[in-house]
Amino acid sequence: MSEGTSSLKRRTFLAASAAAGATAAAGWPAAAAQAADTRPNILVIVTDDHPKGTAWAIPKTRAWLTGNGVEFTRGHATTPLCAPGRSSIFTGQYAHNHGVRGNQHAANLNHHSTVQRYLQQAGYRTGLYGKYLNGWDVDDNPPHFDEFAVLAPPTYTNGTWNVDGTVQTINNYTTTVVKNRALKFLDRTATDSRPWFLYLAPYASHGPNTPEGKYADTAVPAWDGRPSVPEADRSDKPGFVQDATGTLDDGRNIRTNQLRTLLSVDDAVQAVHDKLESLGQLDNTLVFFIADNGFAWADHGWTKKSVPYTPVVEVPFFVSWPAGGLDTGADDNRLAANIDIAPTILDAAGITPDAQYPQDGHSLLGPHRRDHVLTEFFKHGTGTGGPHTWASYIGANKQYTEYYQLHTDANGLPTGSGAILFREYYDLVNDPHQLTNKLHDATPAQEQALGIPALAAQLAADRVSSGSTAP
Q1: Alpha carbon distances (Å) from 28 to 15, 36, 228
Q2: Fewer Cβ atoms within 10 A, N terminus or C terminus of the chain?
Q3: Keyword Signal: yes or no (predicted)?
Q4: Contact 301, 244 (CB under 8 A)
Q5: DSSP sequence for 431-464
Q6: The whole model's pTM is what?
Q7: CA distance 102 to 85
Q8: Are 312 and 80 within 8 A, CB to CB?
Q9: Contact partners, residue 442, CB within 8 Å, separation at least 6
Q10: What is the pLDDT of residue 28?
Q11: Nearest alpha-carbon partner for 147 in 100, 196, 111
Q12: How far apart are CA 295 and CA 209, in angstroms?
């Protein structure tokens, strides 16, 4: 498909979407609004602790969403931690704006600022199946979802679920439960002609990485690591990284177990694809596939998330919408992020967000290209060990990070002096594995040559930015 044809298709469908939305908002009878409704269905699939480099385990997913969609090759999790990342997907905001700075702070999310609220209010049928937010009470219904099965706490087998308001144990592999519930949700389109929003969140590939029985012993391709695994000399890294003990064998074990759990996700995605095809809804469904954060396979000795390094902050990110022109199979190298999902959804559905909830991301349907993205992490409490609070400027060819004397309190609010404890700068072109921190023993003249003063000033602005001022 040519670029011109793609743009024309997209403009046509956006115009139709806007007209349908205006019809519904004008208070016309529901049947008339539904009959004229050409707005796309929205499907968001969010995996857990899922790094890049896992293509072997998700071939069917990639065949659909990259072969007939777009792969954002530089997709980012703006906060590489579960609850903040998911809240950014829902709101299009950085964590410093939506307030869910850590896994302990889900109560800070303003549900009125979420895409599910916008879409439900605009006449969409909304559904959620799988993990919602860390710490979510299973007895509580997720706001602005018409139908749901929330897994809390998340697990792989025989989980506790809140199914449309009834708490129950379902004795099955939880990825399979997510799949089955999603298929039933889609089947109900036979009697409900409204466009729909469906959010699917399997627990894979989060630890303990328990595979489905049929994949428990599946052989995975060999892996010899990469230059950052485990990186022998970490003297230029922050102290917690210098103290990390992960080995190549540790990285291999994590990778093997993650790949095995993702095989079941691939089956579920294929089943959803086949259902949409059978219902004739494949063409006009806008699909996102993204991880809430990446994960380190012993990169720099680290075997967790929450750090500013590429294997943790870059994530798989695929988008498909044939009716909107997103079906070319092309790669897109823009600096994309999870905060772009909500603006893209509202753009496609013809919905203007409320001014009191400014979105930090940008619609991926247009030509917008940012020159850098902010990633940030907030240390919770005053305990020792682990990463300090940090913020990072990631550009097309460089990354600058600052660590701070700062932590969140019981309410999720930052406290501390804010003093800079450590800094890193990496040349992402010549040093993609982030082995050489150019600020280690750098002179003031060398820092000036690298442009550090300007980067530091930009990062300070980014950390308090919102809406139109956000990177």
Answers
A1: 18, 11, 59
A2: N
A3: yes
A4: yes
A5: -TT----TTTT--HHHHHHHTHHHHHHHHHHHTT
A6: 0.92
A7: 9
A8: yes
A9: 450
A10: 29
A11: 196
A12: 13
The rounded mean pLDDT for the chain is 93
Residue 470, Cβ neighbours under 10 Å: how many?
24
Residues 6+ apart with CB under 8 A from 403: 238, 387, 388, 389, 390, 420, 421, 422, 423
Residue in the structure block whose two tokens are 């899922």: 50
**Strand ranges of the sheet holding 398-404, from the earlier edge strand across to the other edge:** 372-377, 389-395, 398-404, 420-427
How deeply is 32 buried, as exposed, middle or buried, from its count of CB atoms within 10 A (0-12, 13-18, 19+)? exposed
- Cα 470 to its chain centre, rounded Å, is 18
Confidence (pLDDT) at 384 = 84
Q: Which two tokens stand for residue 301?
A: 């000795």
Q: Where are the alpha helices (DSSP H) in 122-225?
A: 174-187
Residues 6+ apart with CB under 8 A from 20: 33, 36, 37, 38, 39, 350
The answer to whether the Cα torsion of 368, 369, 371, 377 is positive or negative is positive
* Domain limits, the chain: 3-370
Strand pairing class (389-395; 196-201): unpaired
Residue 452's contacts (CB-CB under 8 Å, 6 or more residues apart) are: 400, 423, 425, 439
| CATH class of the domain defined by 3-370 | alpha beta
Decide if pLDDT at 31 tops 70: no
> pLDDT tens digits, residue range 328-350?
999 999 999 999 999 999 999 99
Tokens coding 26: 């004008």
Distance (Å, rounded) from C-alpha 422 to C-alpha 420? 6
- Is the per-residue pLDDT at 245 higher than 70? yes
Q: How far is CA 99 from the centre of its chain?
A: 17
